Amino acid sequence: MPEPRETAPAYAEPMPIARPTASVALEGFELRVLHLPLVSPFTTSFGTETVREVIVVRALTADGEGWGEIVTQADPLYSSEYTQGAWDVALRFLAPALLDRPRLAPEDVAGMLEPFKGHRMAKAGLELAVLDAALRAEGRPLGEYLGAVHDRVPSGVSVGIQRDPAALVDAVGRYLDDGYVRIKIKIKPGRDVADTAAVRDAFGTIPLQVDANSAYTLADAATLAELDRFDLLLIEQPLQEDDLVDHAELARQLRTPVCLDESIVSDKAAADALALGAASVINIKAGRVGGYLEAVRIHDRCRDAGVPVWCGGMLETGIGRAANAALAALPGFTLPGDVSASSRFYTRDIVTEPAVLEDGHVRVPTGPGLGVEIDRVAWEDFTVARETLTR
Ligand code: SMG
Ligand code: MG
Questions:
Q1: With left for phi above 0 and alpha for psi between -120 and 50, is residue 292 left, alpha or beta?
Q2: Residue 6 scores a pLDDT above 90
Q3: Which of 240, 186, 241, 181 is nearest to 205 (CA)?
Q4: Ligand 1 lined by 175 (C-beta under 6 Å)
Q5: Is residue 16 pLDDT above 70, yes or no?
Q6: For this structure, is 285 an active site residue?
Q7: For the segment 173-213, what is each residue's pLDDT rounded down to a tens digit?
Q8: Is the CB of residue 66 below 6 angstroms from any atom belonging to ligand 1?
Q9: Phi, psi of 208 (to 5 degrees)
Q10: Which domains does the chain have, with CATH numbers?
């Protein structure tokens, strides 16, 4: 007979939040697809975006509204999720499941949506809208609820692949002039060593990291090992999403710390990656893992394990950026995140006070819920599709 276990199993379901919110009487959801023009094209190993297509969620409750954002992109290139798929699953399955109950607490949302496989970004957007509504009704800031310990967070910037290394150096120089405290450059096969060398040579010892968005295979290990000489903070997601074992093998061959992004789709995936030695740093994105509560669980796990984490970005509007700033203010976020100012991507945002860079930092909002107000005119102007579901 095995002894009854006294310690929690490796994958328990911890209650991450010190003080849950009261439940809300959910009356409906309004979903909108928005198109926000980007200030300049954003190129990664998988493609170029010029317009951010995003789904904004408005939760309608008896005590007021709440806002969330579904961070899918138009095409399933970063991961399998994409806007039309998220739109369909949210309207057909997820929102109706939540609307089925007279009252629900934000902490119940993930469990209620659990029977529907995958679609984590869609789930995260709905959960955030319910959470925001509950917190606004209580007059309680999201940062405080999640366990934030800072009132501002250091701001890193993600720089897309440019025409050539010289153009990249120009772009990085502008962001450094703005005050960003950490630079991340996107790489892909053929645009890796020379681009990284150009930035390192031009700017000396700046905190620098690279993101491959899963563009390599283990056969490229020798090329990736050439990056070791640049003293990078980390290399992010070199291999495919489901290549945990290969990431572990690659990590053994590199001096540069391997950080996982796409692979970490849940707390369970984080536990597996750490157990395998597939990552020594983790990028936490609430959308990718199904919500801010799951994101906090990953934070807690990594903090207990002494693994540094940082907050990733999905070109969020002011809604998601406000929530990301709150998350990034938790104590385990020891590396600067992709929590850049709104102006990094947008000339016009959909909140009335978009995040700005102050001395290389972004402030954690202190108002109720997300702590930002929606610019209704911009929200309306950018809308390309809308649908409302009620109980
Ligand atoms: O939101 O500042 C941001 C963008 C950060 O590079 C970023 N995100 O793989 O980390 C990543 C990418 C995902 C989006 S690429 C279109
Ligand atoms: Mg990434």
A1: alpha
A2: no
A3: 181
A4: no
A5: no
A6: yes
A7: 999 999 999 999 999 999 999 999 999 999 999 999 999 99
A8: no
A9: -135, 140
A10: 26-139+375-390 (3.30.390.10), 144-363 (3.20.20.120)
